[in-house]
Amino acid sequence: MAITASMVKELREKTGAGMMDCKKALTKTDGDMEKAIDFLREKGIASAAKKADRVAAEGLAHVKVEGNKAIVVEINAETDFVAKNENFITLVDTVATQLLNNNPKDVEEALVQKFDGEEDTLQNYINNQIAKIGEKISLRRFAIVEREENEAFGAYLHMGGRIGVLTILNGTTDEGLAKDVAMHVAALNPKYVSRDEVSQEEIEREREVLKQQALNEGKPEKIVEKMVEGRLGKYFEDICLNDQSYVKDGDQKVGKFVASKGASVKGFFRYEVGEGMEKREDNFAEEVMSQVKK
Fold first, then answer.
1. Which of 2, 223, 239, 288 has its Cα between 20 and 30 A from that of 245?
2. Helix, strand, coil content of the chain in percent (nearest 5)
3. How confident is the model at residue 288 (pLDDT cuts 50, 70, 90)?
4. How is residue 242 annotated by DSSP?
5. How far out from the chain centre does Cα 236 lie?
6. What are the residues facing 192 on neighbouring strands?
7. How far from the centroid of its chain's Cα atoms is residue 285's Cα?
8. Rounded Cα gap, residues 117 and 215, in angstroms
């Protein structure tokens, strides 16, 4: 029986399983929807999908460097307990290695790639781990970087993976220096490397806000513009890495400190677990009990 896109869509809606898994199930069962659902349940895929409506805003960020390539990745789980679980920690490292070896362009492509040279996909591997661990687990984001000659990676994990940072420095191979900058990024959370990366639109928006603030403070219009430019400089210090005071030496800006070592910051990635996600409001006692009952 020919398997149509509408059949795959229907099975996805009923089970929450991935597209390729649904197509495989329908093919195996000659298009029988109920048998396909049973097939997915037997494989543990549909049971994993039942957890799809849960909020997974905990988890781990991880940084892995192999030769001239590096990856920073965030994988989410539902509770902090599972994030500390040895099986989950192993999963995170395994997924990072898989991504580094296969170089997918995005999460969607990563999940359908063959896992570890086998017929199974990465999504199926994660689903199998969901069945073992008992929580929703999801690959949220990743970035893969390749360094060139005379460049250094800086890898840093804060609080065991609550924050993961990867920096790339140009003009040096000093990984210690790159790691120091990564630690700074973890602490001060800049948005950009330099002022050149800030869009004109964002600058003008901030300039207008600062102008209105000054006027509302009753400052004379003739000095407002000068005040705005001064405050705009402070804004750049907040969001631009090169303009920030270095955490290990407050008398130096990061950009000047790195330059004094003959290098410059080429880029950075900072992943904080769950940032921008809505987290559950479970209380601590309920979270403990939910783990005890499993």
1. 223
2. 50, 20, 25
3. very low
4. G
5. 24
6. 240
7. 28
8. 64
- Rounded Cα distance, 210 and 250, in Å: 26
Which residue in this structure is represented by tokens 């949220």? 140
Q: What percent of the chain has pLDDT over 70?
A: 88
Distance from C-alpha of 3 to C-alpha of 17, rounded to nearest angstrom: 16
Q: How many residues does the chain have?
A: 294
Token pair in block for residue 13: 């809606």
Return the half-sphere exposure (C-beta side, CA atoms, 13 A cut-off) of residue 76. Answer: 23
Mean per-residue pLDDT, 113-125: 85
The Cα 109–Cα 118 span in angstroms is 16
Strands 151-158 and 163-170: antiparallel
Q: Is the pLDDT of residue 171 over 80?
A: yes
Least confident of 49-63, 84-98, 179-193, 247-261: 49-63
pLDDT attached to residue 116: 76
List CB contacts of 204: < 8 A, sequence separation 6 or more: none
Q: Identify any residues that bridge with 71 across adjacent strands, giving them in sequence order.
A: 64, 144
Q: How far apart are CA 154 and CA 152, in angstroms?
A: 7
Burial classification of residue 292, based on how many CB atoms lie within 10 Å of its CB (0-12 exposed, 13-18 middle, 19 or more buried):
exposed
Cα separations (Å) of 214 from 103, 205, 211, 219, 284?
Answer: 50, 14, 5, 6, 44
